[in-house]
Design goal:
Structural class: mainly beta
Order of helices and strands: EEEEEEEEEEE
Shape: globular
Oligomer: single chain
Number of helices: 0
Helix content: under 10%
Length: about 120
């Protein structure tokens, strides 16, 4: 069974930094598209950062220059977040598209496996 497990959420101050982590089966990292999404209260889930099986990365405009997605030892998918602000508050989800090596659809419908999320709160 393919499982994704997020950790690393919590309460943070504006301007701070954090690195949520997603544990996944090791074979996923070199074979599939993986990404991070977030969902603020009352809003739709949105894509934040994606990484192809070959390491090519894509970011939402709202996080470019502040967030970085990376793979750690084919065991964890990390989201390095810096300069956070209250608009970054939300539930952060790890996701994978097991049908494709390249991230083709950066929306919710492009992913077929999801973690349960980790909550990030940024205070002003």
């Amino acid at each position: 069974q393919f499982e994704l497990l997020e950790s690393g959420g919590g309460w943070f101050e504006t301007g701070g930094r954090l690195t949520p982590s997603c544990g996944a089966p090791s074979y996923a990292f070199n074979n599939f598209c993986m990404g991070w999404f977030r969902q603020a209260s009352g809003k739709a889930r949105e894509g934040v950062a994606f990484i192809n099986s070959n390491g090519i990365k894509t970011y939402a405009e709202s996080v470019k220059g502040r967030f970085t997605i990376s793979k750690q030892n084919t065991a964890h998918l990390l989201l390095h977040m810096s300069g956070v602000n209250p608009e970054d508050t939300g539930e952060y989800y790890c996701a994978a598209d097991l049908a494709h090596r390249r991230c083709r659809d950066l929306g919710v419908g492009g992913m077929d496996h999801w973690g349960k999320g980790t909550m990030v709160n940024v205070s002003s």
